[in-house]
Amino acid sequence: MIVRHLGYTDFTVIMECFLSAFENYFVKMPTDYDFYRERWNASGVRYDMSYGMFDSDKLVGFIIHAVDERQGYLTAYNSGTGVLPEYRGQRIVKSIYDYAMLELIKSGVAKCQLEVITENVKAIKSYEGIGFEIYKHYRCFKGEISSNSKDDFELKKVLHHEMNWDAFSNQNVYSWDNQKESLIKGNYDYYEVHAKNILQSYFIMNSKSGYIAQFEILEDSVSQWQNLFSAIYSINSNIRINNVDDRLVRKVEALELEGLQNSVNQYEMKLYV
């Protein structure tokens, strides 16, 4: 078997291996090829800096990397790692990383990071063996918004370049796919919530699917949280939110009080190279 980059590998081949590797995973994975094509494009996936293990011409394992300058480091973000069931137990992920690290360093990458479900103990141990360390603990939520007040806020739709990112804290705690550098290439709408002509909060959302990538309030108060959730409700009441940093205690509490279900938890792991 041999490791090589995926720059010349057909997308269909990658997806067939990806979906086979993620059968019977901890969460049900989407199966629509276009979903991954759009998601990986938004996150900045570089197939020539992603790597696969090949048994002859058969792709049997992979690491999909998005590569971008984030928070001062040229970073390779692992958008997905998998091995076909019949090839597991052969330390394929380690072998791919051994090869990939040398290539990434040559390209100037200074940091690698990934997310892994907290229950996936085998994967966590594998990543720790490579040198990754747990850095953040994320919680994911889904469910129906219950707040539905229409009296105390005004909803304003804006464009990505109109967002005053400096006015909102916590940009450094969002996960890769939810950072502003990824969002600009994704299918998102940007909303500001005002009350009495004063900006209170904002949220960034795929209005059709209900996926919320970012949401923040300017002042931690019951009324601002209620206005924010009511504004979200007015767009789509059935929502999903991935990777809320659990250090943001008030944000987590607000989601729980709103009745959303903590569906799964993840670690962010990092490795400086």
From TrEMBL:
Pfam families: Acetyltransf_1
SUPFAM superfamilies: Acyl-CoA N-acyltransferases (Nat)
Gene3D superfamilies: 3.40.630.30
N-acetyltransferase domain boundaries: 1-160
Protein name (Swiss-Prot/TrEMBL): N-acetyltransferase domain-containing protein
